[in-house]
Amino acid sequence: xxxxxxxxxxxDELYLDVxxxxxxxxxxxxxxxxWDSLNHSNIIVAIEKDYGxxxxxxxxxxCNNVGALQNLIxxxxxx
Amino acid sequence: xxxxxSLQGDTLWERWQYFAQTTPDKEAIIHWRAADExxxxxxxxxxxxxxxFSLYLxxxxxxxxxxxxxxxxxxxxxxxxxxxxxxIGALPSVLAYPNPRLHPDKFRQGLSxxxxxxxxxxxxxxxxxxxxxxxxxxxxxxxxxxxxxxLEWDLNREIDQAAIQExxxxxxxxxxxxxxxxxxxxxxxxxxKPVVLSHDAVxxxxxxxxKSIELSEDDKIVSWLPLYHDMGLIAAYHLSLASGIxxxxxxxxxxxxAPILLFMASSEEKATLTWLPNFAYNLMADKLSDExxxxxxxxxxxxxxxxxxPVRSDSHKKxxxxxxxxxxxxxxxxxxxxxxxxxxxxxQTATNKQALEVSIDREALSNGKIVLTDNPLKNRIxxxxxxxxxxxxxxxxxxxxxxxxxxGSGEIAVKSVSMFSGYRNYPxxxxxxxxxxGWYYTGDIGFRYDDELYVIGRKKDVxxxxxxxxxxxxxxxxxxxxxxxMPGRVIAFGEDDPELGTEQVSVxxxxxxxxxxxxxxxxxxxxxxxMAININIHEVYLAPPRWLIKSSxxxxxxxxNRERIKNKNDEQVWSKK
Lengths: 79, 577
Fold this sequence. Notes:
- The structure holds 2 protein chains of 2 kinds.
- Chain A has helices at about 5-15, 35-50, 55-60, 65-75.
- Chain A contains 4 helices and no strands.
- By secondary structure, chain A is mainly alpha-helical.
- The radius of gyration of chain A is 11 Å and the shape is globular.
- In chain A, about 55% of the residues lie in helices and about 0% in strands.
- The model of chain A has no long low-confidence stretch (mean pLDDT about 90).
- Chain B has 3 domains: about 5-255, Rossmann fold (3-Layer(aba) Sandwich), CATH 3.40.50.12780; about 355-460, Luciferase, domain 3; about 465-565, 2-Layer Sandwich (GMP Synthetase, Chain A, domain 3), CATH 3.30.300.30.
- Chain B has 18 helices and 25 strands.
- In chain B, strands 11, 12, 13, 14, 15, 16, 17, 18, 19 and 20 form a 10-stranded mixed beta sheet that branches. A 4-stranded mixed beta sheet of chain B has the order 2-1-10-9, sandwiched between helices.
- In chain B, strand 21 and strand 22 (about 470) form a beta hairpin.
- The longest helix of chain B is centred in the first third of the chain and has 18 residues, at about 45-60.
- Chain B is globular.
- The model of chain B has no long low-confidence stretch (mean pLDDT about 95).
- The interface of A and B includes residues 30, 33, 34 and 40 of A.
């Protein structure tokens, strides 16, 4: 399940109100207002900064929804 | 360098056939896949499969001159299918695969707009899109005959001699001055302008542009550019196939999520040429880590050509500084000025030389004069797009379309031997931009210095985001329908994003709502309205009623209101910041 921390990072980066936007494990980037291909890399950088982790482009490519992104973060943290 | 005069084939099919016979085992297309081994087409295997598609197309009733829309994602069978269409004299027209955020109604509306202008006869797509497209095909007013799924076709059947003879007769009847392909400009709700290009136009362009970049048999192109975009289709696809060289094709959707794919593919395959819109230079320099770049080499690149949006000196510098240690040569950094209406290129910078830059006085430039200056407080660094390629001419004109003085700036007008034959079924738009002498008025502003062209801005309001043209009218129409936004009281414009090296879409909308809470709701609704037409609205400014300045036509003025937002910190205007 996605954490409040991840949801907040995404919403902050897109200037969205965290209480108004529904983001679940199944949510895909195009469903979130403002999350387009250009903003995508900014969101990834914000996540990397906040969690202190680094992703490879190909790792991110495999994440087809926010739940998969959360799993990737979790696997990085546990390393 | 390739001796183009020795290449045979007056039509594209004949040219491809020529390479299938003379260099059958040479790789034509390397279809790159992020999570799998690449799929490799040789010239002979590509043509053999294209033949099978041609036969299939003929048997379902596709005829010479029919326009065949292709809506297919990155797939190895896209290429022979495209060739197969051209192989029976029909016109392939690559359309963008709909982004999941695009509302199905809007997608169909876009198709309908295109069908009216382009006279789309057939749609070839993938089964997941059947439910979305079928209602459009069944609509009484549509020009489209039928929807097909070519990736499902059985290609294992051998072609018999009689069928080969039939195809051969069809191909013999295709003349070099006849239409070969149709491509669309950007836009979502009927503002697309269909450009038809003949075999002659494409082949001449391949020759003249190929000479300008000293194309050789050993060159290899690598590209993530979508093939519905002129730069992807002509530079990274037709150029290679009609010159007998290899192209490596990367999925644009994958590249944008993992930009490292371009360098992985180029390093592995030793690619020598690529074309990129300006934002890609910033994106790659900023986002690719040393860890990702480990073991990759950029030494093989001899030209990385910047095109499709204004070329920025800062972006080139950032890119060179970042990737120099991986073997990138500064003299590989090149630029081109191009458009679909002239098939592609008009100018190109020299090989083995970094694109030139000049330092121009900003104030003089705003008055249409080119004055060099060394003063860093007053200057603007302009990057050259190079010299005219063979077969092209240009002039710089004022608002009355009179040529300006040698040291003046103005609208760029061009002529080319590879010129389009007018927008299809759109004579009024053609008449707006092409005069009686055949000059095409581009709407771009630029100047010439020392025989090189510098493009510095646009006369038209079109917004270029990451190489894609976005028409403000599309955005304004969509936002006008948002609840509590005053209909018709919206303007959309491009705002510079120096960090990303491109423009982003901004909107000013009048609304009567006042509370912070309601403003936030409106902002999200406006962004969602953009999403429904697959446009990301980056910045939303909400203004009270009657805030927008009107132009003499009575409509809100994009230019005046953009300046007003930029220059004033207006307390009446709400934005997220």
